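Journal club prep, notes for RB
We'll compare a predicted complex against what the paper describes. Inputs for the heme C case:
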Amino acid sequence: MKELKSVETCNVSRRKMLLGTGALAAGVALSQVGGLIKSAEATGGKTEKWPWPYKKLDPAKTAEIAYNEWYRVFCGAAVINSVFTQLREKIGEPYASFPSDAFVFLEGGQVGWGTICGSPAGANIVANLIIGPRIDGAHAGHQIAQDIMQWYSETELPTFTPTKPRISATLPTTTSNSPLCHLSVGKWMKAADKSLKSKERKDRCARVAASTAYQLVTYLNEWKEGSYEATSDFSCSKENGITGQFNCTECHGDDVPEAPGA
Ligand code: HEC
């Protein structure tokens, strides 16, 4: 494996992040998001109820739900449902009418295109519905999403073993160094020597969804208690003038291009 570009090159200081200046660099994408938030405010946001209420959940129970839901609606919707089915019981609306199953399209890195893994994508949808919009720089929903991306990329997954696993054999764990489904599942398949269609690969992805749901609820509970502190200080766009990940050389080799204006 090629040497990874140091994470340091993509970092801003944690202090900056906590102050909210380490959020995505201003650019076309951000000004569009800003525009959207402003127009929602201009109409008073009265048609929207956002952010949504939260009550603390048991991470292990949530992970079990995600594991089982994976076999029905795959990774993204499984993570969303693992939290929202419980909040539907505990709180009711707006969770009761939220169509979580619509997010089945997150499977396979969005309809099989191998982009962002559905597990962090689903987790970030949940965190941002519960914590709300990013208006003045970074806030906890944005930071939890960043923490989820970094945790997912750096952790040997899966971390969670269900109480009643569908596969009795021990599954290998791998670090993806990326939130991309293609890299995450590909590295695991190589380590396990199992095909995409194998029972083992399916159970691995169900356990990754469960592991992500566990981590998400851990963050949300901390946030609810007021003890959450962001740990990710990743900001590639600020450092390199392009959105990206920390494993530049894994795709580019030693010749990492420089972005115009970087
Ligand atoms: C998952 C694979 C992947 C990763 C990780 C990745 N890149 Fe790229 N990047 C690409 C591909 C593919 C292109 C388009 C083809 C090309 O030009 O190499 C691209 C294009 C670019 C471009 C546009 C200019 C150009 O020459 O095409 C820049 C600048 C760039 N990458 C920088 C980076 C930096 C800096 C990092 C790490 C912080 C990074 N990339 C991480 C795959 C990746």
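Talking point for the session: The pocket of heme C is lined by residues 10, 180, 236, 240, 242, 244-245, 247-248, 250-252, 256-259 (CB under 6 Å).
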